[in-house]
Write a structure and sequence with these properties.
CATH architecture of the largest domain: Sandwich
Number of strands: 17
Strand content: 25-35%
Oligomer: single chain
CATH class of the largest domain: Mainly Beta
Number of domains: 2
Shape: elongated
Order of helices and strands: EEEEEEEEEEEEEEHEHHHEE
Helix content: 10-25%
Largest sheet: 6 strands, antiparallel
Strand order of the largest sheet: 2-1-11-10-7-8
């Protein structure tokens, strides 16, 4: 059994968590660790952890990372859906030492990130901001639900598929080619290997999505003439 001792006054090197998946973060976001205990979880009106993920499957206090024995350790805080390191499910309340490249997984891969001691110096170090409510557009990938202003949007069929595609690529123009491949995989392919879908079909689908969304959300769907579609979110 590892003897755990808390280090006081020691200097910690550069250690980071690199996000691979998990709202509200973008893939590649970097969080710098310090010697302070870090609780990973989901924010509520009554409690705010240090690093917050949106998924309802994340426990309020899901896992904790601590600087001990001159290194970083992680433990599961008796979460409902568990914590794993490199595929190994952690026993609750038992520390596991982290090594560079370790993959930390929550709720079976819907949220995961890596522990690193070296990162690209040109990458921006982000400081997480917890989201206590869903006042904007939010997709719970675990439940495949689309929320806006704390209400579930009733969207189905191809408009729903398009919205999910745009959301996963929010604030980036999704090309017509990407849309064709994602939404019409069953179609015959043209000589370029693309599903045979006319741009008029895409225009009509965007129109249907806008009408189902309505209001402020309709204005967030922007067509980039001759290229693709973008979902602009703050």
């Amino acid at each position: 059994m590892i003897k755990i001792e808390r280090d006081v006054g020691k200097v910690v090197g550069q250690s980071f968590l690199v996000i691979e998946a998990g709202e509200p973060f973008q893939k590649g976001d970097i969080i710098k660790l310090t010697t302070q205990d870090v609780v990973i979880g989901r924010a509520t009106k009554e409690y705010t952890p240090d690093i917050c993920f949106n998924s309802l499957y994340i426990s309020r206090r899901h896992a904790q990372i601590s600087f001990l024995n001159n290194g970083f350790y992680i433990k599961d805080l008796e979460s409902t859906h568990g914590t794993a390191v490199n595929g190994q499910v952690l026993k609750p309340e038992q520390f596991y030492k982290l090594n560079p490249g370790d993959v930390i997984t929550l709720i079976e891969g819907l949220v995961f990130f890596t522990y690193q001691e070296e990162v690209d110096p040109e990458k921006t170090i982000v400081f997480p901001q917890c989201l206590i409510n869903r006042k904007g557009l939010f997709v719970d990938e675990a439940k495949k639900q689309i929320w806006y202003q704390d209400k579930i949007l009733k969207i189905s069929g191809k408009p729903r598929e398009l919205l999910l595609l745009l959301y996963r690529n929010k604030n980036r123009t999704v090309s017509y080619e990407e849309i064709k491949r994602a939404l019409w995989p069953e179609r015959e392919l043209d000589e370029d290997g693309l599903p045979i879908v006319g741009n008029e079909e895409i225009y009509a689908l965007v129109y249907r999505l806008r009408k189902q969304l309505g209001g402020d959300l309709e204005k967030m769907i922007i067509t980039v003439s001759g290229y693709g579609v973008i979902l602009e979110l703050d």
